[in-house]
Amino acid sequence: MGFYHSMHDPAIEGILVSTEVIADTVSELGRRITADYAGKNLALVTVLRGGVIFLADLCREIDLPLSLDFMAISSYSPGAGAVRITKDLDDSITGRDVLVVEDIIDTGLTLNYLLSVLRQRDPASLAVCTLFDKDVRRLVDLPIEYSGIRIPDRFVIGYGLDLMGRYRNLPFLATLREEVME
Ligand code: PRP
Fold this sequence. Notes:
The chain is α/β, with parallel strands linked by helices. The protein has one domain: Rossmann fold. The chain contains 4 helices and 9 strands; from the N terminus they run βαβαβββαββββα. The chain has helices at residues 19-36, 51-59, 109-119, 178-181, and strands spanning 12-17, 42-47, 67-75, 83-87, 97-105, 125-133, 146-150, 156-157, 173-176. The strands form 2 sheets. Strands 4-3-2-5-6-7 form a 6-stranded mixed sheet. Helix 1 (19-36) crosses helix 2 (51-59). The longest helix is centred in the first third of the chain and has 18 residues, at 19-36. The model has no long low-confidence stretch (mean pLDDT 94). The chain binds 1-O-pyrophosphono-5-O-phosphono-alpha-D-ribofuranose (PRP). 1-O-pyrophosphono-5-O-phosphono-alpha-D-ribofuranose is lined by residues 47-51, 102-111, 162.
């Protein structure tokens, strides 16, 4: 009987972004955020569920006092841009310097909705940090202050990103085999 190992998972085509490149990118983003937010009232806001992996690593690369809070949202229909909040933040963000932490920005529709909701709550500032940026798929033009790694238009899994709930725990970003997609 064999043991499971992600390197031999038949669904995984190959590694698109390695663990080492992710770690270096997260560290660099943390360094920039630390420099930019010194003396501010930083609140990191993350969207469940995929973003938590990146958040957990990023927050430990930010050498400042900060708070963590979470939201969950659900699409009425995939890609429609119509979203509803299924879990709201626990704390007020009024007067806080809010940084939205996302694992990936694809069409930008999720973020566009989220930013409009958060802006109404009068934060002192509102900015975005994403680890992966699938910018060729963008449908809305959004300012992204901190963007880690541009990726091509492929279905990717790992480091928070899932396929039907699986693979979020892969320590790298991987592409799927075409057969799995079909
Ligand atoms: C991902 C990601 C963003 C969204 C980006 O979440 O965390 O929230 O997709 O896509 P967009 O730019 O096209 O709107 P997903 O819907 O996969 O939820 P999950 O984190 O729970 O897997």
